[in-house]
Each structure stands twice: as C-alpha cells, then as structure tokens.
C-alpha cells in the first residue's frame, strides 16, 4: 500500500532527534528551525518528557473519560498556574483542529448564534468548522462551505467596527490567532485584539484565541494575546502542548456555558497525553522557557535585522518570519542543502522560524552565520550572471 499524498515534503527521512538537532537515515545532522511545525517546544526527546511518558506507560496509558482521571486535574492545575488562567476550565482533545472545532461549537451553544468572524490568511485546521474558518480555498471541500463564516481583513479596526455595527447581534464568535502562523507570521496589533475584546463584550460574542501555534510560551508570553492585556473567552492549544505527543486543549472562561449542549471525545485527555503535556509544563517552569523564548527570540530578531538582503522581519519570541526578495528566491533551498530545515510554505518567498523554545544561542548563531553567508554567496553568483 502506498501513502496518501499530503503537502509537499522536505526531501529527507529523519530517523533520530535530540534538542534542536535531527539526523537523517545516513547520520547527517540538520538544525530544526521550525520545530516540526511549531510542535517541538522543549526540544526533541527531552529527557524529562521521555521519562514522564515512560513512567506513565507502565501505570496506565488510557481509560475513557467515563471515569475520574486524576492526571487531567493535575494538568489543569499546573496549566492554570503557569498561564495565569486559574479560573478557566480545561477540556482536553487531540489536535488543534479538534480544539477549534469544539471552541466554535461551544461559542454557538453559549450564544445560540451561528455567525463566525475569522480573518484573511487565518489557519484554524482541516475539520468542518475549523476549515470553514480557514482562509485557504484549497483545503475547503464543497461540503465545508458555509455562509456562517465571514472573513475580515486582519488588523483592520475600521472594517471590524463597521461589521459589528451591522451584524454584531448575530455573531457567535470571533476567532483569531494572536500571531498568524501558516499565514506567514503576522502579528495582531494590541489595539486590534483590544477592539475584539470590547466588541465581543458589547455584542455578547465569544472571543476565541487560537493559540495552537503561537501559544504555550512560544511568543515570549504564555499566550500571545497576553501582550494586549486582554483575556479571551476561550483559548485553543495543541502543537507545543505535547512536544510531539498529540494533545490539544481548550481553556474556557467561567462565564461560558454549553447550556443545552455537550462536548465529548474518546481519546482526548488520555493518561499518556496528559503525562506528555505535564512534562512540557514542568520543563517550561524548570528551564524558564517563556523568558528564554522571549530573550533568545529578541536576539534572533535583532541579528536578522542586521542582515542585508532579507525583508519584513516580523514576529515575537520564537515565532519569526521574514521575506526573501526575488533575486535570492531559492534561499530556503540553499539553506536546506546547508542542513537547516524549515516548514514548507504556500508562499515560497517567506521563511518562518519556529524552533524549539530552548534552541541554544550557539545554534541560533550557527543559523544566522550560515544565513548571512548563503545570502552573500547567492548575491555574488547573481552579480557574476549579470
Ligand atoms: N490552528 C493553527 C493556528 C494552526 O497553525 C494549526 C496547524 N497548522 C491548527 C490550528 C490545526 O492544528 P492540527 O493540525 O493539530 O489540527
């Protein structure tokens, strides 16, 4: 049997990983500059994460949500403490799409309304509601098409106000990534997030902070929305939450109620997933990784700014993007040949950096030095051509 085709591959087979390094089947070493797509938060195969999962595996791996599962409570407590959202409730799922699917459904249960506001270039997942709120026609099947989602321009306060004045009382939810990931690393302005908060309050809509990619400390704060000093009604999480173990969750503010509806899942919150998620939080705490992501991200950002030949550097913490000008459009390919791995992009001229939060300073320097050399070489080759 053959594998079903998914998105374009990096032409490499990775068989071993540790920290921010991965190795292919021939033992060649690569630096993972996108953390397996923002999933690796505390480094590949972190010893504490391995041990936590291993210990749990010997006790119990899974039992359904039809019984008490104390490790879920342990996770909720720790998550509340580190995120500062102690009064929220935690609902555990298996992926980012499932988190957003449930968040949108819950918002609709809560408000009794149908309209969802999403933003241009947003990515929220590949299941029915999540994909309907995703601005990418290639992944929306005819069955997912709905009139219930309206896309507005990102960071456009006037457009959002006008929309709410007209339609505010039918809006169930506004869903927004604090920093758009797949869309190319676009940071929501603080005033835009504050406006969403105040319009949702005024019109009784639910503010959903999709923190699947930009959450769990990656931005240099636990949630990137924290930069704007706002509390969302629902936060969705996955990716970095398990550091490679599939686990997702939604944090629900105390006033949000499912009313007549029920949420559920078979595998969500299984013992192994909770052990993985707890291990991640313990390492974040022990190694102060949110501060590390902020400071090292700032260092990376500043050094990128000093490199001639790349444009529009943007992002926060360990979530940084930049544009590659036409004259060196093969930069990503060249860097891959130099053994740095990035995520595949819809737009080939964008490079997204999403390494583990604890990528070392030395590894960051290794990337930056190679980047600088690669640009210089490519430019020199162009001059020779000309
Ligand atoms: N939300 C965001 C912001 C994402 O980046 C992604 C995945 N790229 C998802 C949701 C969907 O997550 P998953 O692939 O785990 O379903």
UniProtKB/TrEMBL annotation:
GO molecular function: identical protein binding; pyridoxal phosphate binding; transaminase activity
Pfam families tied to this protein: Aminotran_3 (PF00202)
InterPro entries: Aminotrans_3 (IPR005814), Class-III_PLP-dep_AT (IPR050103), PyrdxlP-dep_Trfase (IPR015424), PyrdxlP-dep_Trfase_major (IPR015421), PyrdxlP-dep_Trfase_small (IPR015422)
Keywords for this protein: Aminotransferase, Pyridoxal phosphate, Transferase
Cofactors, names only: pyridoxal 5'-phosphate
Family that this chain belongs to: Belongs to the class-III pyridoxal-phosphate-dependent aminotransferase family.
Entry protein name: Aspartate aminotransferase family protein
Organism in which the protein naturally occurs: Panacibacter ginsenosidivorans
Source organism phylogeny: Bacteria, Pseudomonadati, Bacteroidota, Chitinophagia, Chitinophagales
